């Protein structure tokens, strides 16, 4: 992927779950195979056995290792000790590239990187929001606080990296037009993920897969299935896969509605394993950035319904019939009923596969990211040499 000297690349993020963790794992694996040294620094509090298995899978590619510290989600006094520990760990690793992901990871990466710059390091400081603080309402006090912090950190940023044009536009609308350089690099998938996954002949109609929290819309999924049954005039079945603190509340909701025999709950599992459990995938999120689950489902040949939020229209196409307005049970239930009653309608609404594969490949994502890393490290080294003359 590159003929220049190997880079020492450290990814810093808080929560090792979901899309951020997936994004970092893909970059780490691709860049390690290209001969670069890669490491991860993240929170030690979040995650469970599923995430532990993912760490085990990526560990052979991490020559700089995995460093896990207690990094809490909210801002508080504990951030002081977390920052000091992070600085100590990063200083020891001597990275050429410090890439922060998400609000807390981005803050720590840029503060630590700037402190290292004072000490003579040429480390490149990058930040990918991945939604993060961009989900806040700019009219709220918390939103104004976080957007002000984001604006302040721009002075310590060598490049912003957006994974969707939606994310770039939201940043400009809520924080302001970026003063730092920026790049748009879409998420991508590995070759094996483009192999079709076929559901079993007697599989349920619908699958929800994701975090069990209101932002992702599990309640919308449950209510929409119930309404779709009324429209179709017969019982429908569904599978829900994922973990989260709110999972018991959704199970209680299912039981209260008398749908326990038709909706089964499962713990988090690999996406392709889950795809075999049902015919159609439903992503009922109230907010998203550039969700991997949408990419993975399309690559696996699944037909899907999704809400018109975040970067999802960039994946499915802005005029796609598979898009539904967010937080709208009636609209989602009508679409679910349509998918059941008209056999090929939803499959025909999916993007053309060859063009999709070209646009959203992990190799392309990693190559574009590495080119940016090399450009920034080269510029930093030249600036240091000029200053020394």
TrEMBL record:
GO terms for molecular function: glycosyltransferase activity. It comes from the Bacteria. Gene3D superfamilies: Glycogen Phosphorylase B. Keywords: Transferase. The keyword DNA damage does not apply. SUPFAM superfamilies: UDP-Glycosyltransferase/glycogen phosphorylase. Residues 17-189 form the Glycosyltransferase subfamily 4-like N-terminal domain. The keyword Transferase applies. PANTHER family: GLYCOSYLTRANSFERASE (PTHR12526). This is Glycosyltransferase family 1 protein. It comes from Pseudohoeflea suaedae.
